[in-house]
Amino acid sequence: MVNVGFVPHPNLHGLSCGGRRLAPAGCVARNPVFDVTPAALVDAIVTERGVVLNPTREKMLELMSGGAHASG
Questions:
Q1: Per residue in 33-62, is it b (16+ CB within 10 Å) or e — as a string?
Q2: Which one-letter DSSP state was computed for residue 24?
Q3: Which of 55, 29, 27 is nearest to 42 (CA)?
Q4: Per-residue confidence (pLDDT) for residue 6, from 0 to 100
Q5: Beta-ladder partners of 45
Q6: pLDDT of res. 42
Q7: Which residues make beta-bridge pairs with 17?
Q8: Under a CB-based contact definition with an 8 Å cutoff, are residues 21 and 28 in contact?
């Protein structure tokens, strides 16, 4: 098992949306974030460029470099 720490995000991260502050001045937020999913548990990655089934590094590079729009 890999020990993964939290990714620190600035306080503003949880207080705004689309670059516009939504919370009143003086508000603070704590937003510890992490997202590490073992590759073996990922069946598909969906992007604006297409869907990659059983994703590998090579399939993702092909999609992102303008290759096929869907992969199986």
A1: eeeeeeeeeeeeeeeeeeebeebeeebeee
A2: P
A3: 55
A4: 59
A5: 52
A6: 92
A7: 20
A8: no
The amino acid that residue 49 corresponds to is: R
Report the chain's C-alpha Rg in angstroms: 18
Contact partners, residue 57, CB within 8 Å, separation at least 6: none
Residue with tokens 């990714």: 7
Sign of torsion over alpha carbons 38, 4, 60, 17: positive
pLDDT in tens, 2-28: 566 656 655 556 788 888 888 898 888
Task: Round to whole Å and give the CA distance between 56 and 41.
Answer: 12
**Per-residue pLDDT tens digits for 28-69:** 877 666 677 888 899 999 999 999 999 999 999 999 998 655
Q: Which amino acid is at 15?
A: L
